[in-house]
């Protein structure tokens, strides 16, 4: 029996294929002060850490296929937790509208039609 | 965490195993566990813990921005009032139909008192490391995961490993506790000493800890070493390694006869950061070996040994907060008990044997750590050092065996449960394990006579 274990192992991960993130990603934050605090306290720990498997902040290539799924799907993934994404992004203080705004910021779609 | 051992996979491109009946394919990923609704029929937003097994629809959410707001919410918000951090506890400490309070807005280092840092309890451990490092200081020890809030980690007795290193609450020199009467109580070993010893590990059942004064240590670089060897060799060397190394832990890998060892020791050597993490890769291999070869332990063992047994050790040098505690993206459920040190290794052998006989679906390694004693009344390490044994189950897998197969072994060896991890102990069972159990309950009744902080889980825990 032949087991191509290395390939299978990676298939078992929750990580998507690695994509390059902007070089200054750690310095990005929402303009709104309260939203920036929520981002700094929750989202940032994974979404500016390339090894985390999370789509990185403003990484357009990583976010494009996710954005296509629609806001309601992305919001549900945040609330429920999805693969390595913990429920509520571990932000117990966030309301649904906060999550929507944070998703838009992460995807660099703050100007997109709502 | 063993899942970070990317180096273990070096050279593991493929393995050929002799099979009698052709290719056995069972690699389909299990579906996600059933999910509760994101919004309930009353329009309330779901709260769910990290692993997904606890959930609630709180009537109100509170995100205080000052101690006064914490106290006001404790006094008047809809009960039960439960504080939440990162939601990393597996037990039912957080779920409430009343008020869910997040301290995320009370975060950061408030001030320094000499080498001690006064830290807001909502600070996530991952943020505390760099904040202390700015002053050349560090927490003496850290747990595996860096997502937890300081308050949540203390409240559940969260710990790292090291025979001479205490759990996080063991380095608390003082704290401020907001209570349901609206009072903010300052306490330390000399002032309100009974409340201090009760509050350091208190499950959010006395009030809400707002600030903690933490002892810190110099922010030294650590030399990290990870290697795999036969499990029997690890058992033979474990006590000597706990005595020798600043931090030592190991993971018994069931169905392989192997163990992964991790040491950290202080060094002045130049930094040599750890390679980019592939946290999931090691666990991914073990899971696929389970999926493909779970029907045959000899094949599974042979394949695992071929893949992991000759792996190149991993080494790194960096500041402690960067090495001891990191992200852990693979979700799981977990049971951990803390045993008298003499019982730790015999109990671990029993646990591994039981899993290999009865639970071929288990693939997570079993973690063994050592923790120094402290004096908090509900600390698992009160009265003497303890050796911990932690058994994990992938979040999509059944974990009932933890209660039926693992807990009886750990209890028989004198174990005390981790407060944030799975166990079934209540009332008198806990009273028999903790000499100061009744003293804690007396303080609890004094500070929260109407039970505003008690959800059903805590009421059951504290029942006579």
Short description:
The complex is a heterodimer of chains A (114) and B (464). Chain A is mostly helical and 114 residues long. Helices cover 45% and strands 2% of the residues of chain A.
Molecular structure report:
The complex is a heterodimer of chains A (114) and B (464). Chain A is mostly helical. Chain A has a domain at 33-106: Cytochrome c-like domain (Cytochrome Bc1 Complex, Chain D, domain 2, Orthogonal Bundle). Chain A contains five helices and one strand; from the N terminus they run βααααα. Chain A is globular and about 25 Å long. Residues 1-21 of chain A have low confidence and may be disordered. Chain B is an alpha+beta fold and 464 residues long. Among the domains of chain B are: 2-8 and 221-417, FAD-linked oxidases, C-terminal domain (Vanillyl-alcohol Oxidase, Chain A, domain 3); 109-218, Uridine Diphospho-n-acetylenolpyruvylglucosamine Reductase, domain 3 (2-Layer Sandwich), CATH 3.30.465. In chain B, 28% of the residues lie in helices and 23% in strands. Chain B has 13 helices and 21 strands. Chain B has helices spanning 67-76, 125-133, 150-155, 193-199, 231-244, 279-293, 297-308, 320-323, 341-358, 401-412, 427-433, 437-447, 456-461; strands at 15-16, 47-48, 55-56, 60-62, 81-84, 99-102, 109-113, 116-120, 137-138, 172-178, 184-188, 208-214, 217-218, 221-230, 247-253, 258-267, 314-319, 332-340, 366-371, 386-394, 416-417. In chain B, the strands form five sheets. Chain B has an eight-stranded antiparallel beta sheet with strand order 17-14-16-15-19-20-18-21. In chain B, helix 6 packs antiparallel against helix 7 and helix 9 (341-358) runs antiparallel to helix 10 (401-412). The longest helix of chain B has 18 residues, at 341-358. Chain B is globular, with a radius of gyration of 22 Å. Residues 1-27 of chain B have low confidence and may be disordered. The interface between A and B is large, with 40 and 60 residues. Strand 1 of chain A pairs antiparallel with strand 1 (15-16) of chain B, so a sheet runs across the interface.
């Amino acid at each position: 029996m032949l087991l191509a274990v290395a390939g299978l192992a990676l298939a078992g991960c929750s990580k998507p294929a690695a994509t390059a993130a902007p070089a200054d990603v750690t310095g990005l934050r929402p303009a709104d002060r309260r939203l920036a605090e929520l981002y700094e306290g929750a989202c940032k720990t994974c979404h500016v850490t390339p090894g985390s498997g999370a789509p990185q902040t403003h990484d357009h290539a990583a976010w494009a296929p996710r954005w296509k799924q629609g806001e309601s799907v992305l919001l549900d993934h945040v609330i429920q937790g999805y693969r390595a994404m913990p429920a509520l992004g571990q932000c117990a203080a966030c309301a649904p509208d906060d999550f929507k705004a944070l998703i838009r910021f992460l995807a660099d779609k703050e100007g997109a039609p709502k | 965490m063993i899942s970070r051992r990317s180096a273990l996979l070096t050279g593991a491109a493929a393995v050929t195993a002799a099979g009698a009946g052709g290719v056995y394919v069972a690699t389909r990923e299990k579906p996600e566990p059933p999910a509760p609704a994101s919004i309930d029929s009353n329009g309330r937003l779901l709260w769910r813990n990290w692993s997904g097994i606890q959930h609630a629809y709180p009537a109100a959410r509170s995100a205080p921005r000052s101690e006064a707001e914490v106290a006001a919410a404790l006094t008047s918000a809809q009960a039960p009032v439960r504080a939440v951090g990162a939601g990393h506890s597996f037990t039912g400490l957080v779920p409430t139909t009343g008020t869910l309070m997040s301290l995320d807005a009370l975060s950061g280092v408030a001030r320094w008192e000499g080498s001690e840092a006064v830290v807001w309890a909502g600070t996530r451990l991952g943020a505390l490391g760099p904040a202390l490092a700015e002053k050349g200081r560090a927490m003496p020890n850290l747990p595996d995961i860096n997502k937890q809030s300081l308050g949540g980690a203390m409240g559940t007795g969260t710990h790292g490993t090291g025979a001479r290193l205490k759990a996080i609450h063991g380095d608390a020199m003082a704290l401020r506790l907001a209570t349901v009467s609206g009072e903010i109580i300052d306490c330390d070993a000399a002032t309100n000493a009974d409340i201090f010893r009760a509050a350091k590990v208190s499950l959010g059942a006395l009030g809400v800890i707002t600030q903690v004064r933490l002892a810190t240590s110099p922010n030294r670089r650590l030399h990290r070493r990870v290697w795999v060897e036969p499990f029997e060799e690890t058992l033979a060397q474990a006590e000597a390694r706990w005595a020798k190394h600043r931090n030592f832990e190991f993971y018994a890998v069931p169905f392989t006869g192997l163990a992964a060892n991790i040491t950290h020791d202080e060094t002045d050597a130049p930094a040599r950061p750890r390679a980019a993490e592939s946290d999931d890769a090691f666990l991914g291999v073990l899971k696929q070996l389970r999926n493909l070869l779970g029907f045959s332990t000899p094949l599974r063992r042979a394949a695992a040994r071929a893949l992991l047994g000759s792996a190149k050790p991993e080494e790194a040098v960096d500041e402690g907060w960067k090495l001891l505690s990191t992200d852990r993206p693979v979700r799981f459920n977990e049971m951990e008990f803390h045993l008298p040190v003499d019982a730790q290794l015999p109990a671990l052998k029993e646990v591994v044997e039981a899993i290999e006989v009865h639970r071929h679906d288990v693939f997570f390694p079993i973690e063994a750590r050592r923790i120094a004693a402290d004096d908090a009344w509900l600390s698992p390490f009160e009265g003497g050092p303890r050796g911990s044994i932690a058994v994990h189950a992938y979040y999509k897998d059944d974990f009932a065996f933890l209660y039926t197969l693992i807990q009886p072994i750990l209890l028989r060896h004198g174990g005390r449960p981790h407060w944030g991890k799975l166990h079934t102990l209540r009332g008198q069972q806990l009273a028999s394990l903790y000499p100061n159990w009744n003293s804690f309950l007396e303080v609890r009744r004094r500070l929260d006579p109407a039970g505003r902080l008690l959800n059903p889980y805590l009421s059951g825990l504290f029942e006579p």
